UniProtKB/TrEMBL annotation:
This is MYXO-CTERM domain-containing protein.
Length: 72
């Protein structure tokens, strides 16, 4: 994989991580303030799942950055 491909992949992962994090925070806010009952629990659980996926994508992008420095 060339350097520009790695950079594009890293940027794409960070963009998706940001989108998922914002979506997760919005769902968490709605689940904790507006929703009630089962819907609130579903929103909160989905929000946590989105935040975890966002963290994993950020971790993968950082790992690629550090391993890319070692290669070249």
């Amino acid at each position: 994989m060339s350097g520009s491909d790695r950079k594009a992949t890293r940027r794409r992962r960070l963009l998706w991580a940001a989108v998922l994090a914002v979506g997760g925070l919005v769902l968490l806010l709605l689940g904790l303030t507006v929703a009630s009952g089962t819907l609130a629990w579903i929103e909160v659980l989905l929000a946590f799942a989105l935040l975890v996926v966002s963290y994993v994508l950020q971790w993968m992008a950082r790992r690629e950055t550090f391993s890319g420095r070692d290669r070249g």
